[in-house]
Amino acid sequence: MNSAHNTNRRTKTNFKSFIKKNAANLLVKVNAEFDSMSDCVRIADGAWRMVDQNAIQIETPYTMGIEGVWLVGGGRDWFEHYETANAIGIRGFNCCGSFTVAVAKQQHAA
């Protein structure tokens, strides 16, 4: 397997750690979400929203208290590194959709 690919692989543990370290400045963007009316995943608005730091509950199994984050558990969630010129974070995706959790680069806690 490509070693460059391995360095960008993220796990649920990385995801939780990123949220804890950056809770005060966290942004979330829903890229795709499950639509029960059509019984499929559809493209979402993709707008960035600030996460309410007081609502974050890392031990809540499927949302971690963050509106827009949906985890299915059982190893069926996939995470990858996300980075643009202005933001850094983690993108998550599964059978329920996909989302990105990020912070502005100048506010990033390593």
Structure description:
This protein has helices at 3-7, 12-22, and strands at 9-10, 27-35, 40-43, 48-50, 78-83, 87-94, 97-104. It is α+β, with helices and mostly antiparallel strands and 110 residues long. Strands 1, 2, 3, 4, 5, 6 and 7 form a seven-stranded antiparallel sheet that branches. Strand 6 and strand 7 form a beta hairpin. The longest helix has 11 residues, at 12-22. Residues 1-6 have low confidence and may be disordered.
Short description:
The chain has helices spanning 3-7, 12-22; strands spanning 9-10, 27-35, 40-43, 48-50, 78-83, 87-94, 97-104.
Instruction: Based on Cα principal axes, name the global outline.
Output: globular
Uncertain segments of ≥5 residues (pLDDT<50)? 1-6
**Oligomer status:** single chain
Largest sheet: 7 strands, antiparallel
Q: Name the average pLDDT.
A: 86
How many domains would you count in the coordinates?
1
Give me the Rg, rounded: 14 Å
Helix content: 10-25%
How many distinct beta strands?
A: 7
Topology order in helix (H) and strand (E) letters: HEHEEEEEE
User: Roughly what fraction of the amino acids lie in strands?
Assistant: 35-45%
Q: From the helix content, strand content and strand pairing, which structural class follows?
A: alpha+beta
Alpha carbon gap, first and last residue = 26 Å
Task: Tally the helices.
Answer: 2
Tag the structure with descriptive keywords.
alpha+beta; 110 residues; 2 helices; 7-stranded antiparallel beta sheet
